[in-house]
Amino acid sequence: MSGNDSNELTTNIENTSGELIDEISGSVSTKRKDPKKGPVVLSVEQVTKTIGKKNIVDSLSFDIHSGEIVGLLGPNGAGKTTTIRMIVGLIEMSHGDVRVKGHSIKSDFVQAIRHIGGIIENPEFYPYMSGYDNLRQYQRMTDGVTITRIMEVVKLVGLQDAIHKKVRAYSLGMRQRLGIAQALLHNPSILILDEPTNGLDPAGIREMRDYLKQIAINEGIAILVSSHLLSEMELMCSRVVVIQEGKLVTERSIGAKTVNEELPTVRVRVNDVAMAEQTIRHLQNITMQSKAEEGTIILQLREEDIPALIQSLCDARVRIYRVEEIKSSLEEEFLKWTGGNRIA
Hints:
Layout: E1 10-12, E2 40-51, E3 54-65, E4 69-73, H1 80-87, E5 95-100, E6 103-104, H2 109-113, E7 116-120, H3 131-140, H4 147-156, H5 172-184, E8 190-194, H6 202-219, E9 222-226, H7 230-236, E10 239-244, E11 247-253, E12 265-270, H8 273-280, E13 286-289, E14 296-301, H9 306-315, E15 320-326, H10 330-337
Parallel strand pairs: 4-9, 4-10, 7-8, 8-9
Antiparallel strand pairs: 1-7, 2-3, 2-5, 5-6, 10-11, 12-14, 12-15, 13-14
């Protein structure tokens, strides 16, 4: 936890190197490692949190790999913050387990938590001290953090010009970046952030997004982020985990198509809609939908049939001004997954 005397919820834990170790043989394990991704850093395994007779989180399971940014999404009351608090050990889980680099949060807490850096809600610092002195204060409480490492993370989050200014002069975005710098000091394997863009203006949100993507790429750190700004999650994350009423609804890579997903939908802008429609009626495996606007037709077809479509329209002397795929936004997909519940 941070060195602030207040009851803050910033979690920063020192790091040790480690591998996924098989519990029986003691050998390095490749359990649930995706060959297309880095090794699994965090495994949430059938985690349940029961309060009274209600399961706030219900048998939730998902993995996070090194170097990827994963968004945790869900409607109000879905259990996102409860899940994050269980992952970092701030509240006890009723059933299941969380493993960080193979170490159990329940039975091997000290080793597991050393691989986590996090900001739960808002980071707190001594306002009368500079950003640098705040980081030095944390350094004194953590083994293995050097001055060189402090300057590395300061550069990584873009605070070089402000690090010696008093924190009271920092904007909210600068405080958030200082919080991330503090969470990164001990070289964690995963960074966990609950609403990191909360209260930021559009410029600050974009800045935060860019720095998180840079951290994932340059440091190879896995990042789990909870946010209600779905447009930002779509730009930031490589994958989303959607929960509702504490249960997993879906896991989906951003921009990836599922096996059962319907044919791509494309919008074609032409100079002669009537001739284009007449031409398309003679083509196979193409479904015409209603016109979106004047001069435009909307079609469903296989990607490999698009060149034949264009060739047929050209042969019919139809001028093509634009062909673009119509994709559902993350917000639209979210509403489908959760049945139209309010986003949070």
